[in-house]
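Predict structure. Chain length: 205.
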Amino acid sequence: MMLDKVFLFPLNNSILFKKVTLPFHIFEDRYRQMITDAVKFNTPIAVINFRPKGDYEEIVCVAGHPHILATYPDGRMDIYITGSYKCRLISKDSEDPYIAYSYEELREDFTSGDTFELELESFKNMLKRWSVTFLPDANQREIFASTLEDPEILINYTTLFLVDDFQDKKSMMIAGSKGDKIKILMRAIGPKEVSLGPYMPVLKF
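Prediction complete.
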């Protein structure tokens, strides 16, 4: 499926995942204009890893529509972007004052094959443990835990918060099926022992 175009937001070692929301502080003039135009023309923004030569053809990335949280007197912005489209960049549409590309939307398979219930339950428990430290508010933890019922969100948040290596995160974003993502994720965060609760076996991987 070919969509019109996407604006590029190149950042060092940055990556966006579908259904995951990330905040950004926008201060450069060209990117403030990009956010303004994206909102005005309903154009998604792709967060991609910066390349010095500016060539992004055939790059796989995730894009989403920006939402402005705050605008400061000097023009700076606080925004958030939720990943909505996985796409392959096709050809450069423009690059002044910011880069725009045409893109092809890529589909992922989260329905067929094994359910991976044991692995998903282990990821959920690890994220709940993570949230005790990084989300001190009990209401925030409860809201966060409720989002983890979606396997795609669960897998992507596990990658975002528990995987340190950027190349592993990139491999997770590019992988096209639930099974492939889980195999990469288990390799990236293992070896670990995870207790699934009283009277349940300890999961080792």
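Summary: The chain has a mean pLDDT of 90.
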